[in-house]
Amino acid sequence: MDLPGYGHANVPAAVRAEWARLMDAYFAERQSLAGLLIVVDARRGVGASDEAMLAYATARALPSHVLLSKSDKLSRNESAKALATARRVLGGRAGVQVFSAESGDGVRAAEGALEAMLSGHAKEPGDP
Q1: Contact at 8 Å (CB) between 89 and 46?
Q2: Which are the contacts of 60, defined by CB distance < 8 A and separation ≥ 6?
Q3: Partner of 68 at 20 to 30 A CA spacing, among 32, 39, 49, 93?
């Protein structure tokens, strides 16, 4: 499921409530769901809506992986800080990495995380 801009969309409360209902049903009923790959703008960091997505995954014991996208827009130091902050915020509830579709940075690692989820070999939230 692709929800571009779900955390930043300027929509009425009734629309947002309908989205929440649909997501509740999707996460509760979608038996083939193997994991959650969340794309977060590295310049914004993990937000409340990303936390809500992680809560769905945790409730279903699904592995999660966060891509800090647009890392090419940051300096190496800023990218390292964004990664450290995300790791601290996530507290081990999800894998996390920097990623740039533009430069290709992190593409192989993201593919590896996705393959692990699809094969059932990804760590679940709370696994050591």
Answers
A1: yes
A2: 27, 33
A3: 32
Residues in the chain: 128
The model's pLDDT over 39-53, given as tens digits with 9 standing for 90+, comes to 999 999 999 888 988
CATH superfamily of 34-119: P-loop containing nucleotide triphosphate hydrolases (3.40.50.300)
> Whose structure tokens read 């507290």?
91
Q: What is the pTM of this model?
A: 0.84
Sequence spans of domains, the chain: 34-119
Over residues 39-89, the pLDDT tens digits come to 999 999 999 888 988 988 888 889 999 999 999 999 999 999 999 999 999
Tokens matching residue 64:
């999660």
